[in-house]
Amino acid sequence: MSGSITVLPIRPLALARKIAFASALGVALITANTALAQDAQTLAGSITMEGRGTVAVTPDMAVITTNVVSTAKTAAEALSENSASISKVIDAIKGAGIEAKDIQTRGFGIYPRYERVASGSDQQPGIAGYEVRNGVEVNVRDLAKLGGLLTLVVESGANSVDGIRFEVSDPADKLDEARKKAVDAARHKAEIFASAAGAELGTIISISETGTQMPQPLMMRAGSMMAASAEAVPVETGEQTIGANVTIRWALK
């Protein structure tokens, strides 16, 4: 009796499962080997160092907030007077070359003003009149215009200036420069420590940014601005600081 061999067909689904299992096993082995290599590198020695880089920048724009405060017996009268005055201020600002996109209304409000009553009196204070406050925040992108603009807004009717805020319009490039300095600082310190320990820096294992310092607006109070003068108000922009912190870990060799 001759022998016979029966070949069982392999189902496509079963074959696909076997292939998927083999692929997953291969990925797991590669991952495990990579992890072992990293662990071995860590065991061989590593150094972690922080670095900080800073860049001094000069503000290139200013933000001022100027107001008109009006009082009258009735709210309607105070509002009418205030609207006329703030319109003159806005027209003067636009006439100085400030674009409409850089002018924004701020702090509008209508408030009752109460009569004074004697101390200890049971009398309830009545309304003596109304106060209307309206202001505009102005972005001054040409700092050469700033001093003259401050004088102009007062001469055109503003009777309150909250101050000046100096800013850096686009700090992105300077921040990148600070980041590079932070990396250089971290590497410099790591090289000193590694050399003192008789080792050298190897490849970077990890690197992360641990913080940034953006320019903080510098405030200048109004001071003598309210004394209208034909001369431009003197202003100084000063400097601001942009910074970055980084933490880097190197393998030692």
Automatic annotation (TrEMBL):
The keyword S-adenosyl-L-methionine does not apply. Gene3D superfamilies: Protein of unknown function (DUF541), domain 1, Protein of unknown function (DUF541), domain 2. Pfam families: SIMPL. InterPro entries: 26kDa_periplasmic_antigen (IPR052022), SIMPL/DUF541 (IPR007497). Residues 1-37 form the signal peptide. One of its GO terms (biological process) is DNA damage response. The keyword Signal applies. This is 26 kDa periplasmic immunogenic protein. It comes from Roseibium album.
